[in-house]
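User: My instructor asked us to take a sequence, write out its structure as tokens, and then describe one feature of it. I'm not sure where to start. Here is the sequence I was given:
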Amino acid sequence: MKAFRGKGFLVGFLIFLMIFATACSSDKTEGDTSGNGEKAENKEPIKIGVLASTTGALESYGKQTLRGFELGLEYATEGTMEVEGRKIEFVVEDTETKPEVAVQKATKLLEEDEVDFLVGSSSSADTLAVLPLAEEYQKIMIVEPAAADSITGSEFNKYIFRSARNSSQDAVAGAAAIADKGVKIATLAPDYSFGRDGVAAFKEAAEKLGADIVLEEYADPAATDFTSNIQKIIDAKPDYLFVVWAGANSPWKQISDMKVQDKGIKISTGAPDIAALATMEPLVGMEGFTVYYHDLPKNEINDWLVAEHKKRFNGEVPDLFTPGGMSAAISIVEALKKTKGDADADKLIETMEGMSFETPKGKMTYRAEDHQALQALYAIKLEKKDGVPYPVPVLMRELTPEETAPPVRN
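Assistant: Let's start with the prediction itself. The structure tokens for your sequence are:
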């Protein structure tokens, strides 16, 4: 009987070991690919949803951003299109420069495509409409190239980071170019958040330097006739007209036709993309600022961007918002490197607040207080250059990230 009991105990013990080993094997299959009992890493792709105006008035901005974004992913991942073992995929949706469409497309990206990040968009109005979705779905949104101050100001939520410059940064650069004690300035801008935020920020910066804003004139964003607006500006007799504008329907031809500069009013504005520069022949000699022109920044990343862009796009140079798309992509990859590929929003927020990263415009830093990227802008003068069929922004002075740091408005 003792022998029998001993055999029974041994058989039972062996059965228990087999069950235990099977259970452990099952656990490893689900959670451990390393064989050492550690939890397996997430190897699912990182998915990014990009909102851009690929049609409509801001189509050129969307095209520039998308080209830069794809090049940025390639640069930051050294061509592998993966980070920490996770492939990077991105889906592009056209907002049509309509806020209601932007919301529909963003919802599709979040619910159907299950993206980990949103990026965009070309229009401030589109972007403002989408911001609440980033908070609702708890996903990081990198804002590029929309510039309205309210994005990282009154409408800010913690999931929003902006690699684009904002209107206040533009304003500091614009004011630095022309404002001084007793200088009289009129402004012209489109009548929506981008234009009004831009003028408000410019006015604040210019008045700090002693200038007087004698007229704020706002035009329909879709206008093609600016006669009445320009006439009011002429009647106000300012020393300068500072123009905030975005889109193909620019007022430059009518400003020239109505001989504003012949009446002693100097024009100042941000030097826009190359297509718009081609319409600015009457403004040669103008002093203003720019977000980017391809030969202004002197660094290795910009050198790579210019060379690679020419190679891929029939000799074309990167345009105004191409480096912004690249910067947005680089910031995502750098953040994921720091989190070891973890796309959890709370971990990313903790990582990205105060994070610095190198871009075609030099070092950018996401300011912790409002997630606005501090960055360089450029005080320029428009000049003719042999062999170039449009006025060229020539560097007067690089404005450092510290100089262009905008007020915290959130």
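For the description part of your assignment, you could build on this observation: The radius of gyration is 27 Å. Try explaining in your own words what that tells you about the chain.
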